[in-house]
Write a structure and sequence with these properties.
The chain is an alpha+beta fold. The protein has a domain of 88 residues. It has 5 helices and 4 strands, in the order αβαββααβα. The strands form 2 sheets. Strands 1-4 form a two-stranded antiparallel sheet. It has a two-stranded antiparallel ribbon with strand order 2-3. The two termini are 27 Å apart.
Length: 145
């Protein structure tokens, strides 16, 4: 789901909803410019056949074992604390976004750090047993580029 970016309590409610549905692993996935950052994902199908996919703009990107940084709720919320700080300092409502010079500064800074600032994030969530089941047989997994 596209994560809340302005109201911390709403973000906590999103995690509560996911946990209520038995999801117990999470990842904060940077969505901005995903199609440029992941040119082509090399992975495997459920049957084990090599598979290559190109992401288009505004897609959610990889899933399952191809998502990096799965973690428990508290770890991912710690990541979101940093993300929320970036939203406050550099996001839609930032004073820097109100001037052309500020926008240019943010664009150049994003090039220097090689990531969108702040971008936007989705929360991805599986059930732990689903990752274990897939991982046990390794029916699909990222391949080296």
């Amino acid at each position: 789901m596209e994560s809340e970016k302005r109201d911390w309590n709403r973000l906590l409610a999103e995690f509560g909803l996911l946990e209520g549905l038995s999801y117990d692993r999470f990842a904060a996935v940077q969505q901005s410019g995903l199609y440029r950052r992941i040119r082509a994902l090399r992975t495997r199908t459920l049957a084990g056949t090599p598979f290559r996919h190109r992401f288009e703009n505004f897609t959610s990107g990889p899933f399952g074992e191809d998502v990096q940084n799965w973690g428990p709720r508290d770890e991912v919320l710690a990541t979101y604390r940093r993300i929320f700080m970036e939203y406050r300092l550099l996001g839609d409502r930032s004073p820097l976004r109100r001037t052309r010079a500020g926008v240019l500064l943010l664009e150049n800074l994003a090039r220097i750090v090689h990531r969108p600032l702040p971008g936007w994030y989705d929360t991805h969530a599986p059930r732990h047993e689903s990752l274990e089941a897939v991982g046990a047989g390794r029916p699909w997994r990222s391949l080296p580029p």
